[in-house]
Amino acid sequence: MKANEQRILKVLCSAIAAAFVASAFLVVVPSKTHTQELEERKPLEYRLEEPDVKIGRREQQEIKCLKEALWHEARGEGDDGLKAVLTVIVNRRNHPDYPATFCRVIRQPKQFSYLTEGKRLEPAPAKDEKKVLAKIEQLSYDAVLGNFKRTLPAAVLWYHNSKVKPGWARAKVQVKSIGQHKFYAKKSTKDKEV
Fold it and tell me: Which residues of 71-94 are buried (b: 16+ CB within 10 A; e: fewer)?
């Protein structure tokens, strides 16, 4: 009987081990939210698309930095002006001479005038500016997720308001003028493609 008990014990241990291993591969599916259930009941043409990307704390901070920079630097410049200013920030973030994050690019000393003027950082839109803020938020989100398409060449790393004449501009070549801003690259740069 002892041999029989040992066999039963081995079979039970094997079954428990197999159940344990199998349970490690089970995927727990979260229940749907109330909003998701309502969306599924809508006809297909009225369903909202929800992004699959989860935004972490770092990405949220990057979006916030971009949002405030675009708000203060280009909110009155229309879509083309917003995209051009964002392109300069993206170009700098991608360039080896500048920091590797949007926030660090924006926070570099003496780079963006709104930071030296002591303005409130968080956008405070008037009623007629809410659409502009929504556009800025979308552009910021797209940039952080890598979905933003540059509108100027990668070599365009500088811009200024046309009301000022900074000394550094003499050493650069003006690539484009959009709204109240002039955009520049190094004089020796041959990169003219977007």
Answer: bbbbbebeeebbbbbbbbbbbbbe
